[in-house]
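*** Residues and shapes ***
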Amino acid sequence: MRLLIGFMWLLHWLPLPILGRFGAGIGNILFLVMGPRREIALTNLRLCMPELTESQRRTLARQHFQAYSRSVWERSILWWASEARLNRLIRKVPAFPGMQIASKPTILLCPHFVCLDVAGAATAMEIEASSMYVQQKNAVFDKALRDGRSRFKPSRLFTRQDGIKTILRALRDGLPYFMLPDMDFGEKDAEFVPFFGVPAATLTATARLAMAARAQVIPVIATFLPNYQGWQVTYYPAWDDYPGDDITAATRRMNEFIEERVREAPAEYFWTHKRFKTRPAGEASFYHQQQQD
């Protein structure tokens, strides 16, 4: 792992067009050799985009592997490049909404697009924030990840074991919470609401946190700019009248927003995650047993 981290450090000196093409090439190889992950992606695409042909879905899955691989290797720039270089490569649309974020408790909603770390870096260069963090099994990689995510403004990284109270305290202290809302963690604290028309176990934490902290929700999504020019980070307007008094309806609204953004950059959504792993009682799994978690 130390050799890999050292290799990534060397890569950050490369021009982004070379690094991006290198990452896409590795992605092509991964698409061929990572059969279980490829089948998870294809299963998700069959469920979410039945209007496509199987050939089109396979092409989209390959593009996703390219995009995901790019995001991993390009992370070296996020971890070690200067702020001046990052500011040249990151286009914020519109300008960073710092005054609005400072006006009240804020949840920055960041769905699982492959460039989500770019959204985190773009935000961390502007303000202190907090986020959920999954400790990595390898201590060397864990340190590199933590250092990379906290190299700009000070940040608080919570684990799932810390619970919602620590997040609420941070929000009430004026620290925005960078939230990744769209993974399947089982039925606990989740509702089955449609995602591309398929019931999906979806965490209700966004709506519950917004209600408890009286927080505004500002979505933020990072995508690739064309021709390896860098990344675009889009800060969307705060949601009006959210969450309201119906947690399930608010969670459905969140999924509908994510669906719209996925349609805009379909190859960049995290298709290799078992988004529909948890099923309502009595419903069979969509995934083969040999596919990875």
User: Anything to note?
Assistant: The two ends are 22 Å apart (CA to CA).
